[in-house]
Amino acid sequence: MRAVITGQIGIDKKPYLEAVQSVCAERGRPIESFHVGDMMYREAPDIRDGRILDLPLSRLATLRRAAFKDIISQTSPASEHPDVVVNTHATFRWRHGLFSAFDFDQMEMLKPDMFICLLDNIEMVHHRLHQGHEIDATLKDCIVWREEEIIVTELLAAAMGCRDRFYILSRGREQDTVNTCARLITRPEMRKVYPSFPMSHVVDMPDVLEEIGRFRAALAEHFITFDPADVDEKLLLDRAIEAAKDGKDWLDVTPHAFGGREGTDVKVRVREVLDIAGDVDGQIYMRDFKLIDQSDMIVSLVPELPGGIPGLSSGVERELQHAWEHTKEVYVVWKPAKAPSPFITETATKIFPDVDAALEYFESAGMFAQPGSLFGH
Q: Roughly what angle, to the nearest 10 degrees, separates helices 122-132 and 139-159?
């Protein structure tokens, strides 16, 4: 598998992909990785760290072509280099404005099999961007750049004949998504699952959150999962709205708080968060549907909330409908005592009373990876 990994500056792709490479090596499937940015700096030792994008576009293009020429040379013939990862970008939104970060002719010579666009919470992208570079970019700049990076990567994948091998992947709970990325690259035939569950209206229900966490972990153990909670900017937006009501100008946030991931608090300007409210909602809508489209099936957990109320949010209902309309397999774990409506029963491939029953069915149906695979399942 030759995978091209894109993503805006601030994703911090290099250490993430080094973790992917380490996981693959530990499990007997080593991959070669090439970091285009590092290679460009080696071609230009006179350039101060963090300032390469300030070069004239013509010199940038020359350095990039030199780096890709080396990658193509070092990975030929393909039969001797079966698993290759190229860490690069599709676009840059910098002082020169918006510009591309690839050349079609060299991409064709590389012969990629897969494209993955990495994402992260936008406040973390913004934080890392300003840690490593001298640039004044707002949250709005970063979230627009993210959308551009996704679209251009998807177009590039289609142009390279990889329309069905383009994936969006969020860093999120890093150990889980490192495994997801490793599986995508080395075991792309594994079943791909979109876990669906209520989010925003259960954040203050610890027992329900714990149940959802076990559900997510169980699916991630046996499948390639594209988890919508790995980007949780809706929570950031909700907190910014509350902070604005309290007259606060700044907000301390812990990224990926949904499900309890620990992380370093970062400060964000409340006004900047409110400025991207429409972008957050629009990108959630777009991104979650794309995650479903790149999956083989959707598995939805509907927990029972206090008072016997089914935890069926409007988002979960819309996801189930989208999956059904796009001919995905639709599985529902229905926990409430109250029976599901026809809108669930008539659009679900199968309904289970609990997660264990669902897993038993998936295993009996041969959906789990075969023994001896990359992760031992």
A: 100
As a whole number, mean pLDDT of residues 311-330 equals 95
In tens, the pLDDT along 204-220 reads 899 999 999 999 999 99
* 83 C-beta neighbours (distance < 10 Å), count: 17
Cα dihedral 199, 203, 207, 209 sign:
positive
Instruction: Say how many CA atoms lie within 13 Å of 35 toward its Cβ.
Output: 13
What is the C-alpha to C-alpha distance for residues 245 and 232, in angstroms, rounded to an integer? 21
Confidence of residue 197 (pLDDT cuts 50, 70, 90): very high
Domain parsing of the chain, residue ranges: 1-190
Q: Which of 143, 111, 115, 114 minimizes the C-alpha distance to 129?
A: 143
DSSP H/E element including 92? strand 91-94
pTM confidence score: 0.94
Taking the alpha carbons of 147, 148, 150, 155 in that order, is the dihedral positive or negative?
positive
Indicate the class that CATH gives domain 1-190: alpha beta
